[in-house]
Amino acid sequence: MKRKIQVKQLLRWHLAQAEAAAPPAPRARRLLEAARPWWETRPEQFQALAEQLGRIHIADGDALAKPKTFRVEHRVPVLIIHRTEKVETSARVILLNVRGCMLRLRLRLGAVALKSPEGIEVTFVNFQSRPLFSAAGISLKNKEYALEVELPEALAREWEQLKVNDRMPFRLMVLWSESKS
């Protein structure tokens, strides 16, 4: 004789099994700690990296001669952190758009011998070596990366007039992780 099991009972049984197998919920302190930016949880490491980033000097110029006009390209200093390796390079801003509080940025990294990852984490640092914010970037092509992030209101007002050929008010730390292949 077959016993009829209602779907409702079966779902409750599955829920009870899942609850029993689930790890305990993390404590509030642990959740708050996980939400803090990396430069707050590792201030000594950030300070050492910020000092190295501050020593990177990029020669401006790369003027492109055009009839009656020229454009000076201001490159942004970049420190790529990959495992224990730190690579100094620069980036050219290809697109910079601030609308409301949303920043859309596209950049092309200078010569880097590392294999390009699918995604990066970019920490924006001001010229006083203070962190501004971090954002995830995605790989496009030819060492180009794009990111979109919400800015604090004051920073958005300050940056909304920036154009791609202006000197940028930031330097970049890039956390470079291996792409999964």
Molecular structure report:
By secondary structure, this protein is α+β, with helices and mostly antiparallel strands. The protein has one domain. It is 25% helix and 39% strand. It contains five helices and nine strands. The strands form two sheets. A seven-stranded mixed barrel has the order 3-4-5-8-7-6-9. A two-stranded antiparallel sheet has the order 1-2. The protein is elongated, with a radius of gyration of 23 Å. The N and C termini lie far apart (52 Å). The model is unreliable at 62-68 (pLDDT under 50).
Share of residues in helices: 25-40%
Radius of gyration (CA) equals: 23 Å
**Distance between the amino and carboxyl termini:** 52 Å
Q: What is the global morphology? A: elongated
The tally of domains stands at 1
Largest sheet at a glance? Answer: 7 strands, mixed, barrel
Helix run count: 5
Strand arrangement in the largest pleated sheet: 3-4-5-8-7-6-9
Mean pLDDT: 86
- Return the string of H and E elements: HHHHEEEEEEEEHE
Specify the structural class: alpha+beta
Key phrases:
181 residues; alpha+beta; seven-stranded mixed β-barrel; two-stranded antiparallel sheet; 9 strands; 25% helix
Show the helix and strand layout.
Elements: H1 7-21, H2 28-35, H3 38-41, H4 43-54, E1 61-66, E2 69-73, E3 76-82, E4 85-99, E5 102-109, E6 119-125, E7 131-139, E8 144-150, H5 153-159, E9 171-176
Parallel strand pairs: 3-9
Antiparallel strand pairs: 1-2, 3-4, 4-5, 5-8, 6-7, 6-9, 7-8
